[in-house]
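Writing this down once: the sequence line spells out the residues, with the fold written below as integer tokens. This is how one looks:
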Amino acid sequence: MSRILPSKRLLYLLIILLAIGFGLNLFLQAASFRMDVLHALKWVGAYPWLYCTGSLFIFFILLLSSVIVPNAYVGPAVVSALFVLLGIASDQKLATRGEPLFPWDLMLLKNAEGMSKITSGMISPFAIGTAVLLVAGLVLVIIKLPKNRIRLSLRVTLAGISVGLSTWFLVLVTGQSPVVAAMSYQNIFWNQKVNYTQNGFVYAFAGNLRQSLMDKPEGYSREAVEAVAAKYSALPEAPVQAAPGEQPNILFMMNEAFFDPTRLPGYTLSEDPLKFIHGVAGQTPSGYLLSPEFGGNTANVEFEALTGLSMYFLGDGTIPYQQRIVKMSSLPSIVSILKDRGYEALALHPFDETFYNRNRVYPVLGFDRFTSEKDLPDADRLTPEGYVSDKAAVQEAVRQLQEASGPAFLHLVTMQNHFPFVKGVNGPNTITVQGGLPEQKDELETYVQDTKLTDEAMAYLQQELLKIKRPTIAVFWGDHLPALSAGIYTAAGWDQEPRLKHETKLLVLANFEIGKEPLGTLSPAFLGPAVFRLSGQTLPAFYKLLEQVRAEIPGLSKKVLIGPGDTGTLKELTPEQQALLADYRLVEYDLLEGEKYAESLMF
């Protein structure tokens, strides 16, 4: 039987909720500093207004939960637990990926079953234990607390106040109002780690709720886009590889977490895991891909490769698939370009089709058909616990290319090498690794074994290409380096070498002559023009722009810029390079956030 809270107890409840709000905010900020409470307290002293107002926001959320649930204690208990889980999740993401939790990360909750498999081994036992204790404590509190409630009229009043003030806070923060600016709030969207540590978790998380992908360039207009389009449309066609006689199939193979482990110094391998890739590298165009990501965010690498748009211009931590493209009706891409030329457009990803909203994004990019894990019930896995193997994925890709009635573009995203690297998941390890800490041995040997299996799948692909009657070209690259234990990269000295932490293997195979000119290191945004050149395809104006940028800055990422001819890291940009990037930025903004004038002018 519930009872109405007397005024005195209601006052106590409000004081308790206020204290909890301040405590939760301190906890969330400690999570932004990897659970360093002392550092969080120093932040409170440096930014008292951000701390106090952020804590009041949490207080009003707690108050709202207290009055909308009949039992005045249940709502705050549940909401408090959710805030604690947010802090734990942000801390764990910082530990594994080096970035905090973003609002759009919560969209992955709909993939809870798949996420549990992907994140197995990534979350520390301490974090799991804390979460279990939290849930158990929450259940106990709900059972034991008295069934007190607040008078209906007062509940309505308090709910109105809570909703009004919480909404006002969000409007001020997302609109970057002068009110919050006076409290030293600055939305540092280009560096989200600093955004969270400087502004606090509450302000940074709230500010990201209405985060656009990029700022509007100065001078953006239809006339400005038309001028850029005219400039690059007028460029003459540069020499291309001789066309193979008929439109070739094009296969993109983006391999999960693949890089060359033999590049890591300080380790001795009992055999070369990449015998085929190393052996063929000098006989065909090859090099390295400068990934915009490390350890995750595969969709952002895919975004660059398919659209030719660069993550370099976008806010730090953004995921275009989830934040923007899923809301669009169309976006020019290599898919749409080739479809206009008579190609069938196929996507293949042997995993959950809803991850990164691929099932909704792929049609926007122009794909005709998407084959996901649910369509491949009999696909081979090296063990029941493993993902679909790279060889099985290649077999399915080849089958679809062979069955195509005309030229086909097929984009394959593999899963075999996804974290965690648990011994035995992809069969027994056959390569030993000497060096490093003993506790890292199984992890390293498992990852090296995975790359060996990928190498074997690539050797198989080369054989199968020769059996396809239509000319076919395959572009293979790793999406990002794996999330190996941080100490492995630290021991290798790569923490101070961002280029090495972002270079993955890039290789082009074909069943017709494409030469063997090295590709050097290039960003995924430049893969489209590169494969067009190799396959004898003419370039649309947008690809001519990309070729001009690639000639000056073949490696374009937030972490490192690589200069012309792969001569090394750029310390500063020349006026000519800045002008090229200004054109590139203008077109990218137009396509993602603007009026899409370039869609009809440059594609």
Notes: The mean pLDDT is 89. The CA atoms of residues 49 and 183 lie 6 Å apart. DSSP finds 23 helices and 14 strands in the chain. Residues 7-32 form the longest helix (26 residues).
